[in-house]
Amino acid sequence: MAYHLEFEKPIVELEAKIVELKNVSGSGVNISDEIARIQEKADKILVQTYAKLSADQKVQVARHPNRPHFSDYIKRLVQDFTPLAGDRLFGEDCALMGGLGRFRGQSCVIIGQEKGNDTESRIKHNFGMTRPEGYRKAQRLMQMAHQFSLPVISLVDTAGAYPGIEAEERGQSEAIAKSIETCLRIETPMVSTVIGEGGSGGAIAIAAADRVLMLEHAIYSVISPEGCASILWRSADFAKDAARALKITAQDLLALGIIDEIIEEPMGGAHRAPEATVDVVGDHIEKVLGDLRGIDGPTLKTRRRQKFLEMGHKV
Amino acid sequence: MSWITNFVRPKIKALITTKDVPDNLWAKCPGCEAMLHHAEMVKNQNVCQHCDHHMRLPIEERLKLLFDEGQYKLVELAKTTTDPLKFRDRKKYTDRLKDAQSATKRKDTIVVAEGTIGGKNAVIAGFDFKFMGGSMGAAVGDGLVTAARLAVGNKAAFIVIPASGGARMQEGMISLMQMPRSVIAVELVKEAKLPYIVLLTDPTTGGVSASFAMLGDVHIAEPGAQIGFAGRRVIQETIRASLPDGFQTAEYLLDHGMVDMVVHRNDLHQTFAKLLRLLMNTKKDKAA
């Protein structure tokens, strides 16, 4: 299903024109030249637009429904994926998926939020907004990775942890806190990639990792721009200003030393080339896991802690 | 800087701003609406003598209340609060900081002190809610790490008293990173096999409750304190339904197994003393 962002309109219009021209081809003389000319123009605008996306535009791209989600990554990158369910305490939360699988020949534990891609699956996955059960399942799987010396790959894509009555009753805070603690305790390599939205505590719960990667147009923020605007500007109308002020883009966060690497997206964003995006993310994760292989568990843990303790102090 | 901004303006400000001791000596209890006399309130640790409603208590009063004989030593913290994002909303973050600093006479929300409780060494890290709502930025993370290291060095119990709305938005992702940093601080204490106790006070929410505040060996909450992850308004807007009575109060958390006990302010010292003696029992005082 095509979904277009407002700022992509000029490009979409040109692309529609090309399709139209192709349909009427046969009659005109110079029609292929015309198509090439418009294509060139569309490409140029696309490059120009994506070369300088504003923070607010990145928010829209990061939330684009056609962006590859957790399941797309699993399908293309992981063989023998064996989903594991439940927190052994209360229930199963499909907002946070996880399991065992083979990534580029290596057994791994993979966890991450899934937002869903149609009404039915969005409801099933609760739009990627994890409940305490999801975070407790993540803890269980990370501990399993530790137990069997398997690397952990986490894919972050959530607007935030679920704000609801039952979530509070069952200790959303405690579940997130323990999940961060587990990330920082395991003596096995852990790589996190923010593939879309990195929403606050709901994201860091599975992202206190040895290496944190981020897709070029992903966002990672302490609070949603809308939420920040309604508190500090007293109106959600200032979300654009908040997005800029909060420094939530991959480029800003690399400069601040919060993330370790940016993964370039295909031209025009991940939603235009989902498969190519998944592949390039796979290549980066493979490279990072290769770098971490051979470092013993206790050293990994010590360095991981050191990295977070020093964070924000090198500037 | 001119003579006007350095000299005249502060004088004018001093004239028009209210002093710490209110001229209005009476306050209304938010619980039972009884009129409370200022001196009575101070004597009763800001607890209403009619309905036991616990009002917020300044951190210095808490330290006096918890440490043996009210004696403690404040730990000097390095100045770490900066403006990493050059953040500005309707107001500059640096201006908000300056205002909070001059209103509270401290560098940031966190206060660290050492002393003894029940004869056992203890390090307390507490929040001053009046300093930007106790929000957690790099200074809080640094303060917690400093306090945890001190506790390990002194073989002391580590006690944290949050009173915080959560992350300090003005520090953006730097503030989110204080969640893992504070968890690491707690890990240092746990690995040294020293007690880590959290006294949850009003309010403890957001990124603060979802990190160090929920990892205690023992969780003690003050009566009526608001404790939770998401704000009430956010939940209401998400679920489009009203919230149950007493939602996110200390008593609610006790019912749901998230805290060990809800303790009246007057009994806090005794409770802490007993816990520390039990957890830090050595052969010498086993008869005690």
Quick summary of this structure?
Chain A is α/β, with parallel strands linked by helices. Helix content of chain A is 49%, strand content 16%. In chain B, helix 5 (138-154) packs parallel to helix 7.
Structure description:
The complex is a heterodimer of chains A (315) and B (288). Chain A has 315 residues and is α/β, with parallel strands linked by helices. Chain A has helices spanning 9-24, 31-51, 55-62, 70-77, 119-124, 132-147, 165-169, 172-185, 200-204, 225-233, 239-246, 250-255, 274-292, 297-310; strands spanning 78-83, 96-103, 106-113, 152-158, 190-199, 211-215, 219-221, 261-263. Chain A folds into two domains: 6-52; 59-309, 2-enoyl-CoA Hydratase, Chain A, domain 1. In chain A, a hairpin with a 2-residue loop joins strand 2 (96-103) and strand 3. The longest helix of chain A is centred in the N-terminal third of the chain and has 21 residues, at 31-51. Chain B has two domains: 9-55, no CATH class; 57-287, 2-enoyl-CoA Hydratase, Chain A, domain 1. Chain B contains eleven helices and eleven strands. A seven-stranded mixed β-sheet of chain B has the order 3-4-5-6-7-9-11, sandwiched between helices. In chain B, strand 5, helix 5 and strand 6 form a beta-alpha-beta unit. Chain B starts with a helix and ends in a 9-residue tail after the last helix.
Please estimate the helix content of chain A. Answer: 40-55%
Can you tell me the CATH class of the largest domain in chain A? Alpha Beta
Neighbour order of strands in the largest sheet of chain B: 3-4-5-6-7-9-11
The H/E string of chain B reads HEEHHEHEEHEHHEEHEEHHEH
Spans of at least 5 consecutive residues with low confidence of chain B: none
Global shape of chain A? globular
- Could you describe the largest sheet of chain B, including whether it forms a barrel? 7 strands, mixed
CATH architecture call of the largest domain in chain B? Alpha-Beta Complex
Radius of gyration of chain B: 20 Å
SS field, number of helical segments of chain A? 14
What's the helix count of chain B?
11
CATH superfamily of the largest domain in chain A: 2-enoyl-CoA Hydratase, Chain A, domain 1
Structural class of chain A: alpha/beta
Number of domains of chain B: 2
The figure for the number of domains of chain A is: 2
